[in-house]
Amino acid sequence: MIVDVINKYNDRESLYGNKLTNHLNMALYALYKMGADDVRLNQFAKGYISRSKLPPLLPPDMKISRENFSEHLGRDGSYSSYILYFENEFKDKNIEDVLKKYVNILLPGEAGGAFHGIIRLAYAYELNDKNELARALAYFAEAYKEFSLPEELQNSMKIIDPIVAISQLSKNSYFRNFEFRRPLIIGRMEDIYEDPQFFKIISEIADDYCTSEYFSELLLKLYSLTGDFTILHGFTSTHALCVLSPFINDYKSILKQHWSLLQLAYLSTNCTPISDYAAAEKINGWPKIFIEACKSSDVHTLKLVYSLHEQSSLSEDDLLYRSIAQEKSRE
Question: 132 and 15, same structural domain?
């Protein structure tokens, strides 16, 4: 069973190298859902651990309680401590009750770790295993990073069509030539967020656009127009929000928050150019796409193809989803 395979390799830290996210569990689940057998799953896991030099899980360095839970959100190295906390939370509660409580507590910090906290939690929920859910929540807590909008700006932001808004951002010369001080996606997002110009150009999304269906199509189109690595995370995090939506108290408000974070993420790419997407002449069905994707050793390819397939169920036409998945699976 996939639960056994994931737990077999679940003795590793959440981060490796220069604060890169450990994607192993997410990639294993995506492989499993696309039809990979146990031989391929174990082969992939061993190869990923070796290539990434994933460090073993360190012992907890402190006791986290309900009283000090919030004090340590976003603290590097808190992963093991939060694992113990969440394992205890799951002992006498069902999965749904724990998620209902903590998803809403952690969502303000969803952009932390380049959205990987919420992405991993969505995978863990689909896996339906308390052991992995405790670890996913622990990483979400460790990666937590808020990018709140000042209240006085929220009512003055212009509400326009989201794809038009991104098109306008793409022409912004200030952020196209922005010089970053920090590394990684999250570091670049922090640099943009701290610049006063950010609050002057972002737009607010209208309620009519705040649906899983619309966001799915929006991010699909945006990724197809840019092919950008950061926008890829925008797409997979949008899928994660959709998966976890049954536990979100105010889904529309969270999608509005997500929209501001997507704009932040886009600006952190130096406004990557938008261009027409040329689809392949022949686009295969999902079974053939999965066969090619399962050969990949790239965790982002595996996650993207899986998310494209899952999100395509929200659309009346999955042609563009299959086209992008086919292209990525062949890289």
Answer: yes
Tell me the residue type at 286: W
Domain boundary among 143, 168, 191: 143
* Cβ atoms 270, 175 nearer than 8 A: yes
Q: Is 161 left (phi over 0), alpha (psi -120 to 50) or beta?
A: beta
Predicted pLDDT of residue 152:
56
CA-based torsion, 15, 20, 26, 31: positive or negative: negative
Q: Is the pTM of this model over 0.85?
A: yes
Token pair listed for 150? 């000042």
| Residues making up the chain, counted from first to last | 331
Burial class (CB within 10 angstroms; exposed 0-12, middle 13-18, buried 19+) of 271: buried
Task: Quote the CA–CA distance of 18 and 109 in Å, as a whole number.
Answer: 21
Residue 295 zone, left/alpha/beta (φ > 0; ψ -120 to 50; rest): alpha
Which domain, by its residues, includes 258? 158-267
- What is the per-residue pLDDT for 155? 44
Intervals of the chain under pLDDT 50: 154-155
C-alpha neighbours within 13 Å on the C-beta side of residue 42: 7
